[in-house]
Write a structure and sequence with these properties.
Elements lengths: L11 E6 L9 E6 H5 L3 E7 L5 H13 L1 H6 L4 E6 L3 H11 L5 E5 L4 H6 L2 E4 L5 E4 L2 E6 L2 E7 L10 H10 L2
Parallel strand pairs: 3-4, 4-5
Antiparallel strand pairs: 1-2, 1-5, 3-8, 6-7, 8-9
């Protein structure tokens, strides 16, 4: 499992962008995690699935709500990662009003999730292999803090916990 001090594993996530400047639909675009994190401070949180109850009611809204606080603490970008396809993440981004605040990144084949070692097997519930719920602060692609939730919990990966850790690391 990834830990504090480790470098983010190399992977390609997908991001659905609504428009490019003049209104042209952009569709899914590849995001190389190493290149996208290079030289930046990233607040990354991951969750089991788009449109699921805790993820939609608490997890994503907390990061959207604290966007300006994260920026003030030196965070360049906030990333939400889930084992869903880019189209689902794009629809969820519209629903959650994340545009310009949280990058909704799809890990469709769970390759990134498996590389971090933070998988959650929900096969028995009909959802297959998913991401565990967690948050991490990255500086130049290196893990500065990591908060992994216990099964069925939402206690340490919330926006306020990561924001407090971010403010303490300035």
């Amino acid at each position: 499992m990834i830990k504090v001090g480790d470098t983010l594993p190399p992977a390609t996530l997908m991001e659905y962008l609504e428009v490019e400047g003049n209104g042209c639909s952009m569709g899914p675009n590849a995001v190389d995690t190493a290149k996208a994190a290079a030289g930046k401070t990233i607040a990354l949180f991951a969750l089991p699935g788009a449109f699921t109850p805790t993820c939609s009611a608490k997890h994503v809204p907390g990061y959207v709500e604290h966007f300006n606080d994260f920026k003030a603490a030196g965070v360049d970008e906030i990333w939400c990662v889930s084992v869903n396809d880019a189209f689902v993440m794009g629809a969820w981004a519209r629903d959650q009003k994340t545009e310009g605040k949280v990058r909704m990144l799809a890990d469709g084949s769970a390759a990134f999730t498996q590389a971090t070692g933070l998988t959650l097997d929900l096969t028995a519930k009909g959802m297959g292999l998913r991401s565990n719920r967690y948050s991490m602060l990255l500086k130049d692609g290196r893990v500065v803090s990591l908060n992994v939730e216990g099964p069925g919990k939402f206690e340490v990966s919330d926006a306020q916990t990561l924001l407090t850790q971010t403010q303490a690391s300035i």
